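Thread amino acids onto this structure.
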């Protein structure tokens, strides 16, 4: 017998937090359910798609001993959303059904046996450390947009977290651009690399932005990566592939530089892209002594140019890039000066913010 009464608002946010792990493909019926497990005055909500698992914890009192039930995720969430904000529903189970009672409303949902819900493996972790939540958000937020989506090279469809000495590095690339962010962290005994799937990275970011805990515990080992806080636990399988030696792709012999205001460049690029080729989004960056010009044209022979105020250093150069890649990183950067470092028209561009020395963004050139 399961019976629990708590406020709708107390339950809804944790429900939405775990919903991202519910199996959308419905390959197994039980995976479209959320497990509710109550024990020791704490309710745990768990969802999984077998690749990723999210558990949220809520402190609350319940009638009776410990118990567990499953509820159909979408219907249960929709019911909770439909209730008044100050509602206090009672959730109980009886003979294979879950009953939600609130005032004059009552909902009866079919359920599946809690015993059929997959249990997570207690894998042995090779590393354990604690990081500030905002630092982890910064690592993921600054790099995740460079991940590929459906590349046959599966290592591109994820994000690399590398731990070495007292530095944690996040790297993502789709083969055309690469984002690298480094932050100091607790000392680790050995060099470790973990390749996280794209969906897991997106869910981690969503969770980290929805909670208030200041610190997050990270543990990881062969095949798994886990985050723990007071409010939730997150576990993901890893991509079993070798990430390329990314450090070799970071340009080091640049001799041409542009310093330009981030907002100025972002607005100009957005305007110029209106007449860029629809598929390639190609824009030419033309650096001359004291001037920096953006040029775009398309198959209709239309053209747009804009010259910006900028500080330049080095010989004249023209280099073509996908403007969307540059705009992505400008959207991430804070206000202030941006430095573009170049060497030749067929060499990659290094993009950096003077406000963040730990971040590097590399864009491969396009043929003019």
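Threaded sequence (368 positions):
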């Amino acid at each position: 017998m399961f019976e629990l009464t708590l406020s709708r608002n107390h339950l809804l946010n944790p429900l939405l937090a775990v919903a991202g792990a519910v199996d959308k493909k419905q390959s197994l019926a039980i995976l479209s359910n959320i497990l509710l497990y109550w024990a020791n005055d704490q309710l745990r909500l768990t969802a999984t798609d077998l690749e990723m698992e999210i558990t949220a914890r809520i402190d609350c009192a319940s009638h009776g001993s410990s118990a567990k039930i499953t509820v159909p995720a979408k219907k249960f969430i929709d019911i909770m959303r439909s209730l008044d904000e100050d509602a206090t529903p009672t959730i109980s189970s009886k003979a294979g059904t879950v009953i939600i009672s609130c005032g004059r409303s009552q909902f009866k949902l079919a359920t599946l046996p809690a015993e059929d819900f997959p249990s997570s493996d207690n894998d042995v972790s090779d590393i354990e450390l604690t990081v500030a939540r905002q630092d982890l958000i910064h690592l993921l937020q600054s790099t995740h947009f460079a991940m590929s989506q459906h590349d046959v090279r599966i290592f591109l469809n994820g994000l690399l977290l590398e731990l070495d000495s007292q530095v944690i590095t996040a790297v993502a690339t789709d083969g055309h651009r690469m984002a690298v962010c480094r932050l100091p962290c607790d000392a680790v005994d050995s060099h470790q690399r973990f390749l996280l799937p794209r969906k897991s990275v997106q869910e981690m970011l969503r969770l980290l932005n929805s909670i208030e805990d200041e610190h997050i515990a990270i543990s990881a080992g062969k095949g798994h990566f886990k985050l723990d806080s007071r409010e939730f636990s997150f576990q993901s399988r890893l991509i079993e592939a070798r990430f390329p030696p990314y450090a070799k792709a970071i340009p080091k012999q640049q001799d041409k530089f542009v310093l330009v205001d981030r907002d100025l460049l972002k607005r100009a690029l957005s305007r110029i892209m209106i007449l860029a080729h629809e598929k390639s989004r190609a824009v030419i960056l033309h650096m001359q002594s004291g001037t920096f010009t953006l040029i775009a044209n398309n198959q209709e022979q239309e053209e747009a140019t804009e010259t910006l105020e900028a500080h330049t250093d080095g010989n004249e150069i023209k280099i073509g890039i996908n403007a969307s890649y540059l705009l992505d990183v400008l959207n991430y950067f804070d206000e202030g000066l941006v430095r573009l470092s170049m060497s030749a028209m067929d060499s990659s561009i290094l993009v950096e913010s003077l406000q963040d020395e730990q971040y590097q963004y590399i864009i491969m050139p396009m043929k003019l």
